[in-house]
Amino acid sequence: MTALTSLAAIEDAAARIRATATRTPLIDVSWQADRHLLLKCENLQVAGAFKIRGAFNMIAKLPVNARRCGVITYSSGNHAQAVAYAAKSLGISAVVVMPTTAPAIKIERTRGYGAEVLFKGTTSIERRSLAEDEALARGLTIVPPFDHPDIIAGQGTVGREILEDAASLDRVYVPIGGGGLIAGVAAAIKQARSTIKVIGVEPAGAATMSASLTAGRPVTLDSVSSVADGLLPIRPGDLTFAHVQAFVDDVVTVDDAAITRAVGWLFRRGKLVVEPSGAATVAASLFADTARDGVSAAVLSGGNVSLEALSKLVAGVD
Fold first, then answer.
1. What is the pLDDT at residue 317?
2. Alpha-carbon span 104 to 57, nearest angstrom
3. What are 220-235's pLDDT values in tens digits?
4. Which residue, among 282, 286, 221, 283, has the nearest Cα to 256 in the 3D structure?
5. What pLDDT is recorded for position 308?
6. 52-142 — its CATH code?
7. From 267's CA, which of 26, 33, 185, 282 has a CA 20 to 30 Å away?
8. Residue 254 and residue 282: Cα distance in Å, rounded?
């Protein structure tokens, strides 16, 4: 039986990352949204996304010998920056394997934190293969983007903070890529206040978790495609899948048009810069879900988007 992340592990992670990760605000945009809606602004997080929570939690727990050798990861961008930032803050060398299609802004920022960047293919499986080869050859520790208990516990601190800051809450929308964020958030929320619904959100063109839930096991999609470049793993993690099965109430999909509309809504109405992956939850809560009762919270998972890309996304969007 797969061991699920405990509240104690999330509490330990919260203490470990407190001096490095930002406690991001939970802001009320109910007036703009015409319904009770709160936004957990991980777009304002260190390195621009929630990923620093899990990355720092895992790297900070490494033994001295492992730290001395350095770490490696494989990521489309946000986890890459988080590992690079965490490693730099701890005085550890880092190598990152990114897809050949990674946005330039994410490549530049990853290098800016001092990491060595390698490129491989367009899928997480291709990136992972090269990372494993490099780890073996160089003696590096792999810091996976989502499927590890320390990563999940770190991401669970997002859910912990939401519970502390929301006086009343009925549902929480969380984006799903590989599943690390929703695994941690759902573990934190359901084990503390089980009546709150946790709803996962995937791009329609990359509905990996939805397909896996239907099959009853993690499955690999032949291909994925979406404007939400941070939500494109072709297979969820085994551990993250187990958490979704145990703790998540529903998983919904949103198309690229709705995600793009949400980026524009957040920029124009919320005055927030959010990348498409981070805006998927708002696309679901405002444009796909007709439920207006109770209080909803949407996790904005990141804000790493270039000015040029943002301009194209919001052009002509109400």
1. 62
2. 27
3. 999 999 999 889 888 9
4. 283
5. 86
6. 3.40.50.1100
7. 185
8. 10
Coil, strand, or helix at residue 88?
helix
Both structure tokens of 208: 């990996």
**Residue 218 predicted with pLDDT over 90:** yes
Write phi, then psi, for 136 (nearest 5 degrees): -65, -45
pLDDT band at residue 272 using 50, 70 and 90 as cut-offs: very high
pLDDT at 1 over 70: no
Residue 317's SS3 state is coil
As a whole number, mean pLDDT of residues 283-295 equals 82
> At which residue do the structure tokens 């727990």 appear?
61
The whole-number average pLDDT for the span 87-110 is 90
Interior CA angle at 24 toward 280 and 33, to 5°?
Answer: 45
* pTM above threshold 0.85: yes
Catalytic residues, by residue number, are 51, 301
Residue written as token pair 């999609």: 221
Place of tokens 């997002």: 158
| Nearest C-alpha neighbor of 206 from the set 259, 142, 162 | 259
Locate tokens 């599943």: which residue?
179
Q: Helix H segments across the chain? A: 7-17, 30-33, 51-60, 64-69, 78-89, 104-112, 124-138, 149-165, 180-192, 208-215, 238-247, 256-268, 276-282, 307-314
Q: Does residue 311 contact residue 264 with C-beta atoms inside 8 Å?
A: no
Residue, of 78 and 246, whose pLDDT is higher: 246
CATH class entry, domain 7-48+149-314? alpha beta
